[in-house]
Amino acid sequence: MTNEMSATAERPGTAPALRLRLDAFAENLMLVRQTVGGAAREFGASQAVVDDLKLAVTEACSNVVKYAYRGEPGLLEVDVRPLDDGFIVEVSDHGTWLKRDGEADAGGLGIPLMEAVTRSFAIATDDEGTHVRLEFALEAADARTDASGADD
Fold first, then answer.
1. Domain for residue 34, yes or no?
2. Could you say which of 37, 127, 128, 132 is the most buried, measured as most Cβ atoms within 10 Å of its Cβ?
């Protein structure tokens, strides 16, 4: 088993305050949810943001478990970095996600869901794997506003 967890008190925006290195098994998703939720609370996130965080991180990690290694052993990596007004969660693997066929409904609702509950969302795939970057504000009203700037 390759499970590692470390936490440090770093300056916002620098090295991860929390780093998880776990086997990419569904059984580890609850550990990730609880650990990043606790970190977010320590950063001062509201309960609404913690709930959104758990939803988005579970989706990103589930994609690693389901798609990255296609039944082979592999690593799930989660880093949490504080910002002055929020925090970033990065979920990475060293596998290959399934290719999408380009149709609007291909791949389900996971990516649109992650986009909807974060302040900023990015996904990149390269030769080293897939990297999902989720950025959250500390308060839900700061994270999601409509085009006019009014709160949801």
1. yes
2. 132
Residue 140 pLDDT class (50, 70, 90 cuts): confident
How far is residue 136 from each of residues 38, 59, 88, 111, 115, measured CA to CA in Å? 14, 15, 6, 15, 11
Q: What angle do CA 134, 45, 2 make, to 5 degrees?
A: 55
- Tell me the residue range of the domain where 39 lies: 4-143
pTM beyond cutoff 0.85 = no
Helix (H), strand (E) at residue 58 = helix 47-63
DSSP 24-36: S-GGGHHHHHHHH
Q: Does 105 reside within a domain?
A: yes
